[in-house]
Amino acid sequence: MADRYELHEPSWCPGCGNYMIRTALKMALEELNIKPHEVVIVSGIGQAAKMPHYISVNGFNGLHGRAIPPAIGIKMANKDLHVIVESGDGDTYGEGGNHFIHGIRRNIDIAHFVHNNQIYGLTKGQASPTTAMGQITTLQFDGVKVEPLNPLALALTMGAGFVARGFSGDIPHLVGLMKEAIKYKGYALVDILQPCVVWNRVNTFSWYKNRVYHLPESYDYTNKEEAMKKALEFGDRIPIGILYKVEKETYLDRFDFIKEGPPLVDVELNPLDAERLMEEFR
Amino acid sequence: MDYSLIVGGEAGQGMDTFASLFEKAIKRCGYNVYAYSDYMSRIRGGHNFFNIRFSKDNILAIKDRIDILFALNEESVGIHKEKVKETGIIIADEKVAKEDNSITHLKLSEIASSLKNKRVENTVGLGAILNYFGVPIHIASQVIREEFKEEIAEVNLRALEEGYKLLDTRYPLQIREDDKILINGNEAVALGAIAAGCKFYCGYPMTPSTGVLNYIARYANEFNIVVDQVEDEVAALNMALGASYAGVRAMTGSSGGGFALMVEALSLAGIIEVPVVLINVQRPGPATGFPTRTEQADLRFMIHAGHGEFPRMVIALRDTEDAFYQTVRAFNIAEKYHIPVLLMSDQHLADGVTTKKPFNFKDIKIERHIESNIKGEFKTYELTESGISPRIIPGKIEGTTVLVDSDEHDEYGHITESAEIRTKMVDKRLRKFELLKEEVQEPWHIGDQEPENLVVCWGSTYGAVKEAVEKLLNEGVSIAALVFGDIWPFPTNKLLNLSRKAKKIIDVEQNAMAQLDSLIREVALLKSDHKILKYDGRPFTTDEVYRRIKEVI
Questions:
Q1: CB contact, 8 Å: A1 with chain B?
Q2: Which CATH class is domain A17-281?
Q3: B404–A77: do the CB atoms touch at under 8 Å?
Q4: Residue A4's pLDDT band (cuts 50, 70, 90)
Q5: Is the predicted pLDDT of residue A1 greater than 50, yes or no?
Q6: All residues at 6 or more sequence positions from B274 whose CB lies less than 8 Å from its CB, including other chains
Q7: What is the DSSP letter of B28?
Q8: B215 and B287 both lie in a single domain
Q9: Are B224 and B113 part of one and the same domain?
């Protein structure tokens, strides 16, 4: 390992969309001239969450659904690190739903790449929060009976400043999205559609391929109403690209001592500084 | 010279302010103070009270009987009347329980009205009571000036003066030099964390732990500390682990129910070997239990919480001074062994205010054990003889990255399913626990070296037990007490030593299942002969411990 990104042999299934997402991620980081030691990938549990093992960066492979809280802790502790969260739809929108919602409220400077294959892969084919109503799965044998969650609409409602959708089958486009998300000052969500070649027989590669289309250049990504319309467009046609992007104050900027000062990790510790606090107890 | 006062009334009647002014004025006279607040889980109404004891001696707990009752409503008279000594006095406004002849009625509300500020009624009472104990008015005035802003201070000072005229001095304190601080358990923990260089504290408000969060938040900007009010306690410990992984000292805290939500991440801390400090300010459970009351029923929970096997340290805090120094120690141990260190307090200690000599900041050492001269591929989990691997901060060494993993992993942190590596990694983690055993502190020892009666207790029962045992020693009883602070690993040397000649082991705990006793059976293969247990949500008074020990010896 040195100052370039090395890839390790993954345990993903052949044909899995994760390969393409990893390729795009590597290209995005390289094109941004970010060095491996400057990046931390935080993940939960699932096939997507194995990402920190397969590309040579700092990695925090934590618990299922819990990728966002440690990512926040890391960014607060060292604002100089590029913090990227990589996890699946089950991890992010299901088990970690509460952290997803409240993470958006903070608007901390993290790029969040959700590998959304609309199914649970590692646990063998159960419905995920984004599986369509009525879809037959290995568990919901007579069809899913709950409405799917719309992550982009939810993120927009919560006030996210960067909301995008990509497709693992369109690597050049995805690289562009990832670069914009990493560069964005604040919380950036990129929901990445990817096929699960083993467990999702509905949302296949060609299912996505036939539906996704690039948002036109004329599209105004600062218009929230338009963004919401695009977020709700998930059927015969699915738009990909940056749906919404505006500048917002980030969480770190609300702490003067972080905004103006060194990263917390570089602050010198001196117990005697606190001695004056005893005065109020006298 | 050992007095107790109870001030009681409804939530919202200003008892907190009265209590803190009274405590401070008494302390400034050079007296020791021990105050416990008993409150209900509501913001208005109900019945709350403070029991404030003060003495020239080093007092550590509350007593059964009191010398003065300041009743802010009629209900308080009924609840506390029986505790008032024959030599004692009940004070109330003339409108409270008018028919009750045992009350010394004072014109508190009338004076407050004449000062055109109804809220100073308690300050009139404060003046009366302080004069009853002969506290010089300049001491009380100073405390008022420190507490209130100018205009408010002025009207309170007038109220105080009027109050001084209402009661004659009956038990004059002998004014001595005051060199103490007055602090509660939550503040002491928070102060310890700040002194230890904690730069990240997150939590979800939960009584009785919120005081730690509040105190650190108050000074966060001044000390470059991020305080994050998290969405839930699940986020709390995960977030603290992220911050610690990235290189800052991180802590979280809650009460039992919140700690229950942290248990998943506690197990994560165990396998990723990222240091973290956590405090559980216990309250009675199960579930919501008694939100504002005290209990010591999480001992077994703290030792065993988390799936799988991993090393941890559990330290019970015994008083405010101990709370401060043990919190500092917790950070050093967490970073030396890369383990979670769990502090245990309880509502009794958290809200109990005590006088202590000022904490010594000069001797605090911050030991971080962080390497910087490592190159190339980094083994986060390098297999070493001690089980402790070198630690580096991610992002600080070009060409070197740090990988931590909740899956079983190899030395580099990569997922593995190898049987051989699995066994090696479990052994590595547990070797740290063996080392940790050398780190543990023996319990505090009070009393005889070869006692016939050996009392064992832990945490905040220290004060009540110490006073009770000292009283028995004075009566010629052969007795000693061991007060455990370090709970896990469990220190056994002193216990085995003292138990050798003891005829009786008496276990004193604030829980129903005698959890310390069960731990002693397990680790030291001893069992107690008598158990003095209390689980009504109220702290032991020193009289109760004395009485109940006396019954069994």
A1: yes
A2: alpha beta
A3: no
A4: confident
A5: no
A6: B241, B244, B245, B338, B404
A7: H
A8: yes
A9: no
Q: Is the dihedral of CA B259, B193, B23, B84 positive or negative?
A: positive
Q: Do B222 and B204 belong together in one domain?
A: yes
pLDDT of residue A164: 98
* Residue B105 scores a pLDDT above 70: yes
CA-angle at A121, arms to A120 and A127, nearest 5°: 20
What's the angle, vertex CA B514, arms to CA B512 and CA B516, rounded to 5?
A: 140
Q: What is the pLDDT of residues B136-166, one digit of tens each?
A: 999 999 999 999 999 999 999 999 999 999 9
Distance from CA of A34 to the nearest CA of B (A): 11
Q: What element of type H or E holds A228?
A: helix A224-231
Span between the terminal Cα atoms of chain A, in Å: 56
Peptide bond into B286 cis (omega under 30): yes
Nearest to B402 among A8, A58, A63 (CB): A58
Nearest CA distance, B92 vs chain A (angstrom): 29
Residue in chain B nearest A73 by alpha carbon: B243
Shortest distance, CA B170 to any CA of chain A (angstroms) = 27
Residue B508: domain span: 444-552
Residues A215, A233: Cα–Cα separation, whole Å:
12
**Record: contact A58-B414, CB cut-off 8 A:** no
Q: What is the CATH number of the domain that holds B321?
A: 3.40.50.970
The torsion angles phi and psi of B50, rounded to 5 degrees, stand at: -110, 135
Q: Nearest CA of chain B to the CA of A192: how many Å?
A: 24
Which positions in chain A touch B275 (Cβ < 8 Å)? none
Number of domains observed in the structure of chain B: 4
Q: What is the pLDDT of residue A3?
A: 67
A247 touches A161 (CB < 8 A):
yes
Q: pLDDT class for A134, splitting at 50, 70, 90?
A: very high
CB pairs under 8 A between A and B: 204
User: In sequence order, what E strands does B174-218 have?
Assistant: 181-184, 198-203
Contact, B198 vs B226, CB < 8 A?
Answer: no
| Cβ of residue A3 closer than 8 Å to a chain B Cβ | yes
Taking a contact as any Cβ pair under 8 Å apart, which residues of chain A between 23 and 62 contact chain B? 35-38, 40, 42, 45, 50, 52-53, 56-62
* Structure token pair of residue B335: 């970073």
Judging contacts by C-beta atoms under 8 Å, the chain A residues touching residue B200 are 73, 76-77, 264
Q: Give yes or no: residues B133 and B279 share one domain.
A: no
| Alpha carbons B120 and B155: distance in angstroms, whole number | 7
Element (H, E) at B106: strand B103-106
Q: Within chain B, what is the greatest distance between any pair of CA atoms? A: 85
Calculate how close chain B gets to A106, using CA atoms only, in Å: 10
Domain ranges of chain A: 17-281
- Cα distance between the two ends of chain B: 29
For residues B14 and B109, state if they share a domain: yes
Domain boundary among B310, B330, B356: B356
> A139 at the B interface (CB within 8 A)?
no
Are both B433 and B448 inside the same structural domain?
no
Distance between CA atoms of residues B204 and A75, nearest Å: 20
